[in-house]
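Look over this record as teaching material.
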Amino acid sequence: MQSTNGHGDLHLPIIDTSKTDFTTGQRLIDAASKWGFLYVRSGEINITPDIIDHIFTISKKFFQSPVKEKAECAVSVNNNWGWLGIHSEKLDVEHQKQGDFKEAINFGEFVNGKAQQPMPKSLAAHEAEIGQFAMRCNELCMKLLRLFACGLQIDEADGGESWFSSRHDPSKGPSGSVLRLLHYPAIETCEFLYDAAVDVRAGAHSDYGSITLLFQRPSQPGLEILTPESDWAPVPVFPAGTENDAFPPILVNIGDLLSYWTNGLLKSTVHRVVVPQGSGEDRYSIAYFCHPVDSVKLVSVPSELVDRRVDGSERAKENRNAEEPMTAEEHLKERLAATYGWAKE
């Protein structure tokens, strides 16, 4: 599907996260409650443009390797780690005729710098670098989670600014956190049939976890979000004020779990990836999906701002009122089963 609406680029906020104070936390809450999306500049954190560019180079190397080689590390049933070929995912099950026009490779958590899954031949020499990048992404997410807790004014007796981050502490157990390298081939060179009227690079969906970090390449747009007015609006790779930056700022969006925890105060916004008009270029991106520890129960956040919410999502209300709230692992398995067509256990 190509972008055909006339909605102008969004003006999403760019947050300076160098200060970890209440004011910064408030700005994050304001952005996340209105849009569910915001930017942070990579120069303000421990992920430099050189590091990002290097991971993109590694990513391109992998996707250019033979299909047979990539397939040796394919995702298996009930496992979200490994390579996914074109059409493997169908993110918008209700509306898509066929799966997404993209391929990806998912890396689960690294332990002591080692992947807990088979490494493709083209990436084996880069295992430590990929693990280091995933760790830096996780560190940024933990920082953002502390800022969100600060902005929600969680009382120290209830966990304070550590309320979210303590539930994402890898020392407490495994999680569904995933580093994903993505490749959307140019439609003109793609071997699969493509119907521009209905097909899409990535179907409309919301993310499953707590926070997603998205790294993009210059001149490779395509991401759109569903606005509060129910219009599709393109998200600029370089928002106004960052055009002279060495690399695009990192796009951050809220996932379902953070929305549930806050009774819908923080928005998990529906988004998709389309083929921009006039673009015949491949699109590469990198996403880091931050999830809580598997055993964490999705209970309400002890915040007056959250308690005042009366119009949260129906599913959030159901979970809050459930005799036994679902865990992060149960939620993720349910969403993955729908995406990949796995049978429920």
Notes: Helices lie at 22-34, 49-63, 67-71, 127-151, 256-261, 304-307, 314-321, 328-340.
